[in-house]
Design a protein that fits this description.
The structure holds two protein chains of two kinds.
Chain A lengths: L2 H5 L2 E4 L7 H5 L5 E4 L1 H8 L6 E6 L3 H10 L4 E7 L9 H5 L8 E6 L10 H7 L4 E5 L6 H4 L1 H14 L15
Parallel strand pairs in A: 1-2, 1-3, 3-4, 4-5, 5-6
Chain B lengths: L1 E5 L22 H21 L3 E4 L13 H8 L7 E8 L5 H14 L4 E6 L5 H4 L7 H17 L4 E4 L4 E5 L12 E5 L3 H9 L3 E4 L4 H17 L9 E9 L3 H14 L10 H8 L8 H6 L6 H6 L3 E4 L1 H15 L3 E6 L5 H18 L3
Parallel strand pairs in B: 1-2, 1-11, 2-3, 3-4, 4-7, 7-8, 8-9, 9-10, 9-11
Antiparallel strand pairs in B: 5-6
Classes of the chains: A alpha/beta, B alpha/beta.
Chain lengths: 173, 365
């Protein structure tokens, strides 16, 4: 993980209790649990920069912040956001123009019908990435904390580069 | 009732076939080519005779089967089987790359215009040694791989997968299946755990390397579990794989088969290497019904195989009676009729007699 990743805070909106992905990430980088107002206040600060993550319905707050403070937010991660149709129409209309590298996570619980709503989010976000977390539902940050933390960590550290495997998979030297 | 012609495409030629894996010191490429061609010809014949499906399987490192990748022979079948469905029963998905499997099924479904049946199995225990996969992970890998394959078939946007055993950053397969949401899926269902998973996810169940009493018990469990999840399996949701050799008379069939069995391969895959099997069993591979799951893999005598419904042997009239028992006790909607030994003319006669004298009589059941 790069030096700026270790020092730049991850603002976490909603959820993020003990034992979850946020707690795991907090061992390696500053994670600040924040309200939308708190995150907005932080972002209005001089030279403020951060990563942003939001659980469930807090996606709307996070998107509004990302659109308003695109230059200050390095990455945006949305964990099990609500359906696009539940967003304010004005906000939804701006998603294609969002410049912040965005990762959207959905649980791949067997009961979920494939194709929605992750598909809708992937289509709505011009540059977003969609990842399904197996063995988890909407509470993925506590259901599979290591898997979620690993993914967010990699996305924060490498942005678009996270598509390209960088691990050294050699078994033996 | 539907019927499929199944052949593992056994190798008939020189082999030091005493354990598993089987070495290739005396292997004959010519015999292998002839063996595969014989199976391809028989599948084409079955298609012309009106068999509902033809089916292929995956086994490794043994003359028991020359189709370690069933997708490859299925690709060949797309060019010679013009009517019947092509059933892969199946791909051993826990030892494979699931995205690759999703792509291969989709290719086959596209080439055939939607005539593919997608069996996804855990495979026989020895398969785990083939590609160095821990057998203890078999069920977990199976369940995750199946879900990922279904998602790869249906998700229209590029997506990543953060699994327990599989991790991909972006997936978007081309081509995509013709059948929606994908080809009909079957899994092997001899263990209670498999029956429960299949019932929960409305997946068809296939029984192989077992007998009618054990399969009937497992099918009953599957139906009970399905009821818990609010649905009733159709007859076509259950496949029963059974050996077959039909002759013009009982005497002819028994004589042909007995002679071929004495000369042919006796490799039983997993149980051909008992030490290996014991080590696999120790990983917990078999699940909670371990005794029955191991027992069903044991070789049995000809008489036992007939009595337990592992083998249909005799004249068409006798075989129809034997199928009646399977139908009564198990209620399977699809019989996966297995070519046990390649005997030349007697095998072709058996396939023909089955197509002409047996299948018309069981089709309405």
């Amino acid at each position: 993980m790069s030096a700026d990743t270790k020092t730049m805070p991850l603002m976490w909106l909603g959820g993020g209790g003990d034992g979850g992905a946020a707690a795991l990430l907090a061992r390696e980088m500053p994670v600040q649990h924040a309200s939308a107002a708190g995150a907005a206040a932080f972002l209005r600060g001089a030279d403020a920069r951060c990563h942003l993550a939001a659980m469930g319905p807090r996606a709307a707050d996070a998107l509004a912040l990302a659109l308003e403070h695109a230059a200050n937010i390095e990455t945006l991660t949305l964990l099990a956001p609500p359906e696009i149709s539940s967003l304010d129409a004005g906000l939804a209309a701006k998603l294609k123009a969002l410049e912040v590298p965005t990762l959207v996570l959905f649980g791949a619980a067997m009961s979920a019908h494939p194709g929605t709503p992750g598909t809708q989010w992937r289509r709505a976000l011009g540059k977003g990435h969609l990842v399904y977390v197996y063995g988890a539902g909407d509470a993925m940050d506590t259901e599979r904390p290591e898997a979620v933390a690993s993914l967010i960590r990699d996305f924060i550290a490498r942005r678009e580069g996270f598509l390209v495997r960088a691990a050294d998979d050699r078994l033996h030297p | 009732m539907k019927a499929s012609l199944f052949s593992a495409a056994r190798y008939h030629g020189p082999a030091e076939d005493v354990s598993w894996p089987v070495g290739g010191t005396v292997y004959s490429a010519e015999h292998a080519q002839q063996s595969l061609q014989a199976s391809l010809d028989q599948f084409a014949m079955a298609d012309q005779l009106g068999y509902d499906w033809v089916s292929v399987a995956e086994h490794h490192y043994s003359p028991f089967s020359l189709t370690p990748n069933p997708m490859v022979i299925a690709g060949a079948l797309t060019q010679i089987v013009k009517r019947a469905k092509i059933a892969l029963l199946g791909a051993s998905i826990p030892i494979l790359n699931p995205v690759r499997v999703a792509e291969e099924f989709a290719m086959l479904d596209t080439i055939t215009g939607g005539r593919v049946i997608a069996g996804m199995l855990r495979g026989t225990p020895n398969e785990y040694v083939t590609y160095n996969i821990n057998p203890a992970e078999s069920r977990g890998r199976f369940e995750e791989a199946m879900r990922l394959i279904q998602m790869a078939w249906t998700e229209t946007e590029p997506f990543g997968w953060q699994g327990r055993y599989y991790e991909y950053r972006t997936i978007s397969i081309w081509p995509r299946p013709v059948q929606k949401p994908g080809p009909k899926i079957y899994m092997s269902g001899s263990s209670p755990e498999s029956g429960e998973f299949a019932a929960k996810h409305r997946i068809g169940l296939g029984f192989a390397v077992t007998n009618v009493p054990l399969a009937a018990k497992a099918a009953k469990h599957y139906r009970e579990q399905a009821a818990r999840y609010g649905w009733t399996p159709e007859p076509d949701d259950i496949i029963y794989r059974v050996g077959i050799h039909a002759g013009r008379t009982d005497e002819e069939a028994i004589e042909d088969f007995t002679r071929a069995a004495a000369l042919g391969s006796t490799n039983s895959l997993t149980m051909a290497n008992r030490a290996l099997e014991s080590n696999i069993a120790a990983t917990g591979y078999y699940g909670r019904d371990v005794d029955n799951q191991r027992k069903r893999l044991m070789p049995s005598t000809l008489r036992e195989r007939i009595d337990e419904g592992r083998l249909l042997l005799g004249s068409p009239d006798s075989i129809v009676k034997q199928i009646e028992v399977i139908q009564r006790d198990l209620g399977a909607g699809v019989l996966d009729l297995t070519v046990m030994h390649q005997m030349g003319a007697p095998t072709l006669r058996s396939i023909e007699l089955t197509g002409e004298k047996i299948l018309p009589r069981i089709r309405g059941w």
